Amino acid sequence: MLVLLIAFLVVGPKDLPKVARWMGRSVKKLRAIIREVKQETGWDEIETEIRDTKAEVKALKNEADITSELKDASAELDTSLKSVQHELNEAKQEIQSTEKS
Fold first, then answer.
1. pTM (2 decimals)?
2. What's the Cα-to-Cα distance from 85 to each of 8, 13, 77, 98, rounded to whole Å?
């Protein structure tokens, strides 16, 4: 809106449609030139390759994430330690009860 207002003030209402058409054509030509340069330099292919590589790296990172496996192993170890501790407490109580007798 601001650009249109400035263009209206600078160019005037009479020549504004001509300037707008010229700008539209210029933008269209510029886009065509950019598209052509991308095709000639292979930029589109490079962009696609970079996106694909990024997706592959992300997938590998997710596959290599062993956090959940470590949590499971930690939980199993904790359970085993508690079981051993419980058995040691029972053995201690048995030893104490046999010493008292």
1. 0.41
2. 85, 90, 12, 20
